[in-house]
Design goal:
Its EC number is 4.1.1.20. By secondary structure, the chain is of the alpha/beta class. The chain has two domains: 159 residues, Beta Barrel (Lyase, Ornithine Decarboxylase, Chain A, domain 1), CATH 2.40.37.10; 247 residues, TIM Barrel, CATH 3.20.20.10. The protein contains twelve helices and 21 strands. A hairpin with a 2-residue loop joins strand 20 and strand 21. Helix 2 runs parallel beside helix 9 and helix 4 packs parallel to helix 5. Bound molecules: pyridoxal-5'-phosphate (PLP). The site of pyridoxal-5'-phosphate has 16 residues, from helix 10.
Length: 421
């Protein structure tokens, strides 16, 4: 459920008409709903009711500080995957002891920054990384809390580019080697081993892969405890999928996911962390774009938008489907027609949808890409010297620009010309 609904013939974000935002900031832009962000966070938080838990929002999904602050004020922690994300979470006011640091290639500088600024835990992905964290912790005179990310070798049944829990993926340590790796970690005086971490992929639409993985984590918890490790925190990653199309079967709900966690892991008495990203931000954001031209092609009509693959790369990168709706509500019974919906970037990959049925549209009309809140703005680029598009946050009947569109001067002046030219 989200808060982008038609009212009086036009699409609204909460109580703000989309066309009003478009008039104020120009197109294209991203717009997020505070109420939807909070609702999704609350669904997860409630799903783990009765267990000691922390929902750590995976901020790589949408990392604007206004979004982070909205969620942090509701009680969320953060899952970060780079030093930049760590600093950004801190800048948004998230305390270090609510920040979890994940990622397969943490550099010494990133580790030092997090250890100096305070960190809830590192989710360690390899023994070489363990050694580096240990050395830096000793140098700083602190003890680094860690979990080890295990790779449970389960098929997440999702797009290959976002599956992370199979043994051929680069993530985590093989679960079969866990005893050895935990013994190594326990021997390092700069580390305190507190738990286990697992994250098997993104956009999972079934519970079964989670069940397989979490069952393995439960077994591993008992095994490691019997080997003398004080396993007291389980970080279960993110990955619960969202409905991108209305037609598709709906993915499991957070409450069902929470029930699965209780069933598979509840008896262990561990503190539970989860790291949802997409489900919190995905349906809380739209990308709004304007029709520039309608071009008749050979047997098809092209809708050429001012938004492009550099603004929303998911269709080009993951063959992702996004619902695209007219901002002006189509009159009842209006006949739809198929369009190929494309951006202006100079490659055929810049295609958002083929033969998509839409109401008749004309230049100047606005369209909204639904489910664009996660892995949208954060993956955008300035390819074709197209400025990063603004982000807007709506709260009831208020809205604010939370990232400005840069001017062409700002973009162009970022280059420096060497003196020999
Ligand atoms: C990307 C990622 C997440 C979030 O995944 P979603 O599918 O957005 O919920 C959580 N944890 C880790 C370690 C990740 O890399």
């Amino acid at each position: 459920m989200d808060h982008f609904l038609y009212r009086d013939g036009a699409l609204y974000a909460e109580d703000v008409p989309i066309y009003e935002i478009a008039a104020a900031v120009g197109t294209p832009f991203y717009v997020y709903s505070t109420a939807t962000l909070l609702r999704h966070f609350q669904l997860f938080d409630n799903a783990l009711d009765g267990m000691d838990h922390l929902v750590c929002y995976a901020m790589k999904a949408a990392s604007n500080q206004a979004i982070l602050k909205t969620l942090a004020q509701a009680g969320a922690g953060m899952d970060v995957v780079s030093g930049g994300e760590y600093l950004r979470a801190k800048a948004a006011g998230v305390p270090g002891d609510k920040i979890v640091f994940s990622g397969v290639g943490k550099t010494a500088d990133e580790i030092r920054a997090a250890l100096s600024g305070g960190i809830r835990q590192f989710n360690v992905e390899s023994e070489p990384e363990m050694e580096v964290i240990n050395a830096i912790a000793l140098e700083l005179g602190v003890v680094a809390p860690i979990t080890v990310r295990v790779n449970p070798d389960v098929d997440a049944k999702t797009h290959a580019k976002i599956a992370t829990g199979k043994s051929e993926n680069k993530f985590g340590i093989p679960i079969a080697r866990a005893s050895e790796v935990y013994a190594h970690a326990a021997s390092l005086p700069g580390l305190e081993v507190i738990g286990i971490d697992v994250h098997i992929g993104s956009q999972l639409t079934e519970l079964e892969p989670f069940e397989l993985a979490y069952t393995k984590v439960a077994e591993l918890t008992e095994k490691l405890r019997s080997e003398g490790h004080n396993i007291r925190r389980l970080d279960l990653g993110g990955g619960l999928g969202i409905p991108y199309t209305r037609a598709n079967d709906a993915p499991p709900l957070p409450v069902e996911y929470g029930a699965l966690i209780k069933k598979t892991l509840g008896h262990l008495g561990c503190e539970i962390e989860i790291e949802p990203g997409r489900l919190i931000a995905g349906n809380a954001g739209l990308m709004v774009s304007k029709v520039i031209y309608v071009k008749s092609g050979e047997g098809r009509d092209f809708l050429i938008l001012d938004g492009a693959m550099n603004d929303l790369i998911r269709p080009a990168m993951y063959e992702a489907y996004h619902d695209i709706v007219a901002v002006q509500e189509p009159a009842p019974g209006v006949e739809q027609q198929p369009y190929d919906i494309v951006g202006p970037v100079c490659e055929s990959g810049d295609t958002f949808a083929k033969e998509r049925n839409m109401p008749p549209l004309a230049p100047g009309d606005l369209v909204a890409f639904r489910s664009a809140g996660a892995y949208g703005a954060v993956m955008s680029s300035e390819y074709n010297t197209r400025p990063l598009i603004p982000e807007v946050l709506v709260h009831g009947d208020q809205f604010a620009v939370i990232r400005e569109r840069p001017s062409f001067d700002e973009i162009i002046n970022r280059d420096t010309i060497p003196e020999w030219l």
